[in-house]
Amino acid sequence: MKTTEEETISGNDTKLAVPSSAPPTCTDPSCISLATVLVIIFIVGSLGNAVVIWIAGFKLKKKSVNTTWYLSLAVSDFLFCFSLPFTVVYRIKDDWIFGLFMCKFISFIMFLNMFSSIFLLVIISVDRCVAVIFPVWAQNRRTIRKASVIVSLVWIISAGISTPSFTFRTVQPHYVKQTKTCFNDYKHDQDHVIVVVFRFVFGFLMPFLIIIACYVVIIRKLKINQSAKTKKPFKIMTALIVTFFLCWIPFHIVALMELNHEKYDGSFLHVGQVIGVTLASANSCLNPFLYAFMGRTLRGSVLLFCRRLRMQSTRKAGAQCEQPPSPPLEKKDFQLLFEFLRTIKLYNFKPKKTAIKKHLFSVYVA
């Protein structure tokens, strides 16, 4: 069944009715606020995830399985953040000007981010659970190469189950407004139900059931083993999962409610879609802060990177007046210095010039 409503947000499931008299420009406060929030998410998320990718992928000398997981999450979030400008322009102009392929591709990127993120969180939970239950086995068998293979499989599976965006997403001209709309065109109601339920079950419900099961096991083990080293990865994992849950649950609730849209007011569902998609987008810019504040290794690398930048800028600023550095003092230098001070005391602070010069020469010349 082809939907006949008039407006949608990029990445969402259907088009919900909005009065056709609305001007094709972003002048109302809600539109301006939404566009502003999306721009902030784009800037913060792109920069934050780019820093994580650069440090975890290129600057960290000691890589680990955990950094492989977090690097993949950062790549997923970075790709999604880079798709946000298209949505911002669409919201401002109320006109999809990027063509049919980009209409499909932007929605595809959103759900690729959703599936890859939740699948990686499941893998992180299972990995942490195995490391807690079988620490010796995990230490010997957990390798970066195996983690990279698992990450590759996650990306392939996530891309495969995100293809409905290419199947149902389309562009349709709006003859009254003289604009184009990007939306999901479900030929049958059953297609809509299958897509929404599949995304909820496999992209949210089942993964969280697995995560909860892992948490139960981990918490029981942590009561026995109170090692701080064991708890630190657990804290990062907890923060990531809670953030994902809070950011994506509104989206799925509204999508399920929309299956029976006759029972709800169209404006209410439209506002719910806006909030759901915005919160889902915000998840991609929050993760870098969780890595930085919760992860000691990455946080230390970020601080070291900033410190080196500051030192380089200071050196460049004072390069012209800077003197060559003196060689480091050794133990014998201090012994000579003490001997020289004793000589001064012996001569009642009136030492011979030759003695002073001799000792000074010994102290300052290597």
From TrEMBL:
Location in or out of the cell: Cell membrane
Domain of life: Eukaryota
Chain residue ranges for the region called Disordered: 1-24
Membrane topology qualifier: Multi-pass membrane protein
A GO CC annotation given for this chain: plasma membrane
Biased composition regions of type Polar residues, renumbered to the chain: 1-13
Record flagged with keyword Translocase: no
Positions of transmembrane segments: 32-57, 69-90, 96-126, 147-168, 193-218, 239-257
Main location: membrane
GO terms under biological process: chemotaxis; inflammatory response; phospholipase C-activating G protein-coupled receptor signaling pathway; positive regulation of cytosolic calcium ion concentration
Domain G-protein coupled receptors family 1 profile: 48-291
Keywords of this entry: Cell membrane, Chemotaxis, Disulfide bond, G-protein coupled receptor, Glycoprotein, Membrane, Receptor, Transducer, Transmembrane, Transmembrane helix
GO MF: complement receptor activity; G protein-coupled receptor activity
UniProt record similarity statement: Belongs to the G-protein coupled receptor 1 family. Belongs to the chemokine-like receptor (CMKLR) family.
Protein name: Chemerin chemokine-like receptor 1
